[in-house]
Structure formats: structure tokens, C-alpha cells
Design a protein that fits this description.
Strand 1 (about 95-110) and strand 2 form a beta hairpin. With about 260 residues, this protein is an alpha+beta fold. Helices cover about 35% and strands about 25% of the residues. It is elongated and about 85 Å long.
Length: about 260
């Protein structure tokens, strides 16, 4: 009998230890009810949240709390009083007859090349009292003068290298603070603007000619370009340089 029972045990399939432990727990321990736990969770959710404790009246004495902002109402007077300075451009005494955007160039004689002077509005300004017309052009950003001369009747506009939107002329320019003989060139956006500028230029030349502007400069130009006088000049030619020297300051004053 003992041998048969041993053989029966060995022939029966072995049960895993984990399965035996779970089966032992299921048979040994009774099932726990889940209802009380669910009720506890529901009750916890339904409980209202406790309100945060309000600040006590004595919180003002707390050193860690930020102090309320206070307005001092102080007034600070500047140490230095700056007065407004009015800059006089001498354009206040003139009327703008014509204005157009363009780019100006000046011929550099030592280097024999064109150099750009600036881009801005070229204007024809007429003085309110003497009615003389001058050409003025400033750079658009710095407002620095790049062309300033009287529109003389002796000036002549010539096309620049066959371009229909650019003109070249000689002028006694006063842009640098002193009179200088410069060859200027101006270029416009299109040929229509260039033709309009030429029409206005010639129109104001006639206006200045009727006022007698540039008569001295026109007479002095051939004398300045002539050959140097000989050691014993003729009496008739001796007065010509003197007349040119007397008329040169007047031309420079008009160009200014």
C-alpha cells in the first residue's frame, strides 16, 4: 500500500508553487468587500475643500510680506535749462518754384572721374524781395548742401554721354562754403523728369536775365579764360582785368 500511494503521487502532475499559493489564499482568506472603499472615495470627493485661512489683521506686522507702494509726489527740476535754438537756413526768405528728386555728381579734376555728391530734392528758390532765382539741393538724410548756385543766363545744359535723363553744366557753386568752378551732372528717374527740369532751368535763366543777374559774370568769363597779358599790355586791354576783378565778388555774392 505504501508503494502504491507513492507511485500515485509521483504519477499525478505537479502543481506550480505560485498556483498553490494563490489557491491557498483564495481558499484560506475570505473575499474582502469593495463597497466600503468605494463609499470612502465618494465621500472624500464630496467633501468641500477647506478655504484658505484669511490673512489676519496683524499680517501688516509680518516682515516677509511686501509693503504697499507709496507715491512720494516729488518733483525733480532739471539741473540745466536748455533754450530752443532756431536754425536759420535762409530758405525762409524764399519761395519754392520747383522741386524734384534727383542724384547729383561732381567731376573730380585731379582724379578725372565723376563722384557722387548726394541724392535728394533739387529746388529752384526765388527770393521774395529781389526776385532772384537760385538752384539748391540737399542730401535727403543729412540735409547737407550739395549744390548751391545762382541760375545764370550763361549756363548751358548738355546731355551727359547721350543720356536722355541726365544733364551736365558748369557753375560757380557755393556748396562747400566758398565759390568754386565745378562741372556738375544731375540724373533723374526718367526722361520726362529730365525734360521738365531743363524747361524750368531755362525759364528761370530768362527771369534772372531780365533782372540783370549774371551780366558781370558773363563779361568776366572770356577775360578769365584768355591768355595771360604780355609784359607791356595795350592801354585798351589794361582795364579788362580790373573790371573782371571788380565783378568777380559780385558774381560770388550772387552765387551765395
Amino acid at each position: 500500500l505504501h508503494r502504491s500511494s507513492t507511485r500515485a503521487r509521483s504519477a499525478a502532475p505537479a502543481t506550480p508553487r505560485s498556483a498553490r499559493s494563490w489557491s491557498h489564499r483564495l481558499t484560506a482568506e475570505p473575499a474582502r468587500p469593495l463597497l466600503p472603499r468605494l463609499q470612502t472615495d465618494a465621500m472624500a470627493e464630496e467633501e468641500p475643500k477647506k478655504a484658505a485661512p484669511e490673512a489676519d489683521d496683524g499680517a501688516e506686522d509680518d516682515d516677509n510680506q511686501l509693503a504697499p507702494e507709496e507715491e512720494t509726489g516729488g518733483e525733480w527740476a532739471p539741473l540745466v535749462q536748455l533754450e530752443e535754438v532756431k536754425v536759420k537756413t535762409h530758405e525762409e526768405e524764399e519761395d519754392v518754384l520747383f522741386k524734384m528728386r534727383a542724384k547729383l555728381f561732381r567731376f573730380d579734376k585731379p582724379n578725372k572721374q565723376w563722384k557722387e555728391r548726394g541724392t535728394g530734392d533739387v529746388k529752384f528758390l526765388q527770393h521774395k524781395e529781389n526776385k532772384k532765382v537760385r538752384l539748391l539741393m540737399r542730401r535727403e538724410k543729412t540735409l547737407k548742401i550739395c549744390a548751391n548756385h545762382t541760375v545764370l543766363p550763361s549756363m548751358k545744359l548738355v546731355e551727359n554721354a547721350g543720356s536722355d535723363r541726365s544733364w551736365v553744366w558748369f557753375a560757380q557753386d557755393f556748396a562747400e562754403g566758398e565759390v568754386s568752378e565745378d562741372m556738375l551732372a544731375i540724373r533723374f528717374a526718367n526722361s520726362e523728369n529730365a525734360l521738365k527740369f531743363k524747361e524750368e532751368f531755362e525759364k528761370y535763366q530768362k527771369m534772372n536775365s531780365e533782372l540783370g543777374v549774371g551780366a558781370g559774370a558773363a563779361a568776366a568769363a572770356p577775360t578769365k579764360a584768355a591768355e595771360p597779358a604780355k609784359e607791356e599790355p595795350a592801354p585798351a586791354k589794361a582795364d579788362a582785368p580790373a573790371a573782371a576783378a571788380a565783378e568777380a565778388p559780385a558774381a560770388a555774392k550772387e552765387a551765395a
